[in-house]
Design a protein that fits this description.
Blueprint: E1 4-7, E2 12-15, H1 21-29, H2 31-40, H3 43-53, H4 61-69, E3 76-77, H5 91-95, E4 98-99, E5 112-114, E6 119-124, H6 142-146, H7 149-155, E7 160-165, E8 172-174, E9 179-187, H8 196-201, H9 205-208, E10 211-218, E11 223-229, E12 237-239, E13 245-246, E14 251-255, E15 260-266, E16 271-273, H10 275-282, E17 286-289, E18 294-298
Parallel strand pairs: 1-17
Antiparallel strand pairs: 1-2, 3-4, 5-18, 6-7, 6-17, 7-15, 8-14, 9-10, 9-13, 10-11, 11-15, 12-14, 16-18
Length: 299
């Protein structure tokens, strides 16, 4: 199965080079793989693997990873205390690398919703329970994801962004507008892979995986439900912000090793996703958008 996405910056349709492609297929399509996945979706294996990624032993993987996925390290700053020749002491430090100042800027227009992460996006005016992109809508609505009657009603029939971060991507996530935090809670769950290969086999992953949920009151886009979804071999979701108020573009947190997902729910009538993301979504194609660029417009 080829995973195609549209690169907005380059204006090209590209085929994704999947990290661990053969392993994902084996886990979700073979009998033995399905048996093993019942163990791997539990938190402990991912936590143990995360500890390895924090160890100096994992440093040896960095060079090969950079070469295989053509990552331009000139855009990123080295880990504190490391040199340009050996910029990261372990794989997790490389994985959560930060952009150099000026390499990514959030769009200044207050009516534009900035991309909260550098990722591959699907977008929806609202969730139709019968839709199939990338999973059945009944597993992607506010009721299934947020699991809270108060917020289900707030975000019912509102716009949704689904942002998938691959292992090759920048893995920090940011606030898309100025505002304040009005609620935060965690939903424990499994840790299935969020790779499209896995989603094809098991459609309820977003509704059953571990999730961290923040409800934001923004200055320009009403309330936003901001959800980080855990995934297989994601060592941890880290919330790095320390106060209840935030500014557009400020870092909110990061995922330790592993690809994962951010889901953004909006209030009906407050904003609309960008037309190109909506159009590509209707074709079953994600849109790759750089951090801080436009994903939606105030109505």
């Amino acid at each position: 199965m080829e995973i195609k996405y549209y690169n907005r910056e380059k204006k090209t349709t590209e085929i994704e080079k999947v990290y661990g492609d053969s392993g994902i297929k084996w886990l979700y399509r073979s009998f033995l793989g399905k048996c093993l996945s019942k163990v791997l979706i539990k938190p402990m294996p991912s936590r143990i693997y995360g500890k390895y990624q924090n160890s100096p032993l994992s440093q040896r993987k960095i060079g090969t990873f950079i070469e295989n996925f053509d990552i331009d390290l000139s855009e990123f700053i080295p880990e504190t205390g490391c040199s340009q020749d050996a910029p990261y002491s372990n794989f997790n430090s490389f994985f959560i690398r930060k952009f150099k100042t000026g390499k990514r800027e959030f769009v200044g227009n207050k009516n534009i919703l900035g991309a909260p992460c550098e990722a591959r996006y699907f977008a929806y005016h609202s969730i139709d329970e019968d839709q199939e992109i990338p999973v059945k809508g009944k597993y992607l609505n506010a009721r299934s994801i947020l699991k809270d009657d108060r917020w289900e009603q707030v975000f019912k029939d509102g716009p949704v962004l689904l942002a998938r971060l691959c292992p090759v991507d920048y893995h920090r996530f940011h606030f898309p507008d100025n505002g304040k935090l009005i609620d935060y809670y965690n939903i424990s769950g499994k840790l299935h892979s969020v790779n499209p290969l896995a989603l094809k086999t098991k459609g309820d992953i977003f509704a059953t995986n571990e999730r961290e949920i923040s409800i934001l009151q923004t200055e320009n886009f009403g309330k936003i439900g901001y959800v980080e979804v855990g995934a297989m071999m994601v060592g941890k979701i880290v919330q790095s912000f320390e106060k209840d108020t935030f500014q557009k573009g400020e870092e909110k947190g990061y995922f330790l090793f592993g690809g994962s997902t951010v889901i953004v729910f909006g209030e009906k009538g407050k904003w609309i996703p960008d037309a190109d993301i909506l159009e590509n979504t209707s074709k079953g194609i994600e849109t790759f958008i750089k951090l801080g660029r436009s994903t939606g417009t105030k109505r």
